[in-house]
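Q: C-alpha cells for this one, please.
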Amino acid sequence: MDSAVVAALISAPVALLASAAAYAAGRAQGRGALEGPVAAVRRQHQRESYAALVGAANTYMAQIEWGACLQEARTQMGIGAFFDEGQETEVRRRSARVRAAVSTDPVRAAASVVLLEGPEHVAELAETIAIRADQVRSEARTSDGPGGVLEALREGRTPEVPAQYRLLQAIDAFIDAARAHLNGDSSASRDRAPRTGVTAPQPSA
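A: Here is the predicted structure, written as C-alpha cells:
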C-alpha cells in the first residue's frame, strides 16, 4: 500500500479524536459562559425580591407601632396630645382598630415573590413573615376581649405584644438567611445585635 495512504489512514482517527475533544471543550466553555450571566440575573432577581420584602415588612412595622396608632386615633377623634383622661379608653380602643386596619397585603405580595425565587429555606422564612403579620392583625382585632391589650391597660398592667415581637424576630431571621444566601455563605451571621425595640402600649397614669 502506498505510504501516503497508510499515513492518511493512521492520522485520520487522531484528527477525528482531536476534533471531537475540541468540540466537547467548546460546548463546555459555551455552557459555562451562558450559565454565568443566567446565574447573575437570577441572583439579582432574588436580591430585588428580598429587598422588597424587607421594605414591605419594615413599613408594616412602622405602621403598627403603638405610638403611631395612638396618634392616628387621636387625629381621627380630633384631639391633640393633651385631652381629658376620660377619653383615654376610647383612644386606646380606636388605636387598636387602627392597627387592625393596616393591610398585610403588601407583605404577602412581596413574600409570594420570594416563594417563587427561593431557595426553599429563604422562602420558608418569607412565608413566616407573612404569617406573623397576619397574627398581629388578628391580635389587634381581639385586643378588647378577655386577656387583650385594653383589658391590661384598664387594670394598670403593661400588656405584652408577642405577635409584634415574633414578627420582628421573623424579619431578622429572614435578613440573616437572605444575606447568607446572596453572599454564598450559609454560615454567615449578622454582625449587628438583634432588634428588640418593640414598644408596648403604656397604661395611663
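A few notes: The chain has seven helices and no strands. The first helix runs from residue 3 to 64.
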